[in-house]
Amino acid sequence: MISFAGVGKSFGDNHVLRELDLDVAAGEKVSIIGPSGSGKTTILRLLMTLEQPDSGLVEVDGELLWDCRNDVGAADTRRQAAVRRKIGMVFQHFNLFPHMTVLNNVTLSPIQVLGMPREEAEQRAVDLLQMVGLEKHLGHKPGQLSGGQQQRVAIARALAMRPKVMLFDEVTSALDPELIGEVLAVIRDLAHTTAMTMLLVTHEMRFAEEISDRVLMFDSGAVIESGPPSTIFENPQHERTQRFLKAVLERK
Ligand SMILES: Nc1ncnc2c1ncn2[C@@H]1O[C@H](COP(=O)(O)OP(=O)(O)OP(=O)(O)O)[C@@H](O)[C@H]1O
Ligand SMILES: [Mg+2]
């Protein structure tokens, strides 16, 4: 479903990704862990076409998103947008439209981008908001909700576009500790009940262990260790992974 082949990305002299190869199968749930600045968010931003790679290929669902050899992506923005629409993303900061109701935040893109009739978009939004436990808040503005509630709206909003792939970037790290659980519960439910492909960057190790088919340990722009969660968390092979997990777990 997702394939990176030889992808490089630099910001000036900062070589963030080096010849990255990464494949995620359809339906697979993959967590990315690793130290700050190692390039985790950059991977997700390349998939969202918020950044452009310097080298390599990126494919999504069998279609080219980026091909630096042939300038695919930069040259053909309409075709690229169609590929990009298969992907939904939830960010650390919810980025909801503050002046719009919860319901309108969720229906906006289906109506404007997919051309869905309003009635159908609203019915679907109500179903999704029910799924994330917010059916009582349809008419509220984001500012009237807690951080955890806003993040659940952001998840519903991404799902409203019927993506094949969902990306989550540290979606709980801006939340108060007591609100983290309700957001993780929604994602856990999605992971366990849908066939969507999921790529998550997270510092919630217990959560990653529970929902992932595979965990990737990232350092300095490369995958240094990859395996089932039981191996990565209980028996990490790489010294860098051991050091990282020790530091993260001690911080808790
Ligand atoms: N738009 C940008 N311009 C310049 N440098 C950038 C830009 N985006 C990211 N970087 C740099 O690229 C490196 C990787 O950033 P990235 O956000 O991918 O790291 P990360 O692994 O997600 O870190 P964190 O765990 O702190 O979120 C960092 O050194 C960062 O400063
Ligand atoms: Mg990041």
UniProtKB/TrEMBL annotation:
Its main location: membrane. Residues 2-245 form the ABC transporter domain. PROSITE patterns: ABC_TRANSPORTER_1, ABC_TRANSPORTER_2. InterPro entries: AAA+_ATPase, ABC_ATPase_HisP-typ, ABC_transporter-like_ATP-bd, ABC_transporter-like_CS, Ectoine_EhuA, MetN_ABC_transporter-like, P-loop_NTPase. GO terms for molecular function: ABC-type amino acid transporter activity; ATP binding; ATP hydrolysis activity. Pfam families: ABC_tran. SUPFAM superfamilies: P-loop containing nucleoside triphosphate hydrolases (SSF52540). GO terms for cellular component: plasma membrane. It is a peripheral membrane protein. Keywords: Amino-acid transport, ATP-binding, Cell membrane, Membrane, Nucleotide-binding, Transport. SMART domains: AAA. This is Amino acid ABC transporter ATP-binding protein (PAAT family). It comes from the Bacteria. Gene3D superfamilies: P-loop containing nucleotide triphosphate hydrolases. It is found in: Cell membrane. Belongs to the ABC transporter superfamily.
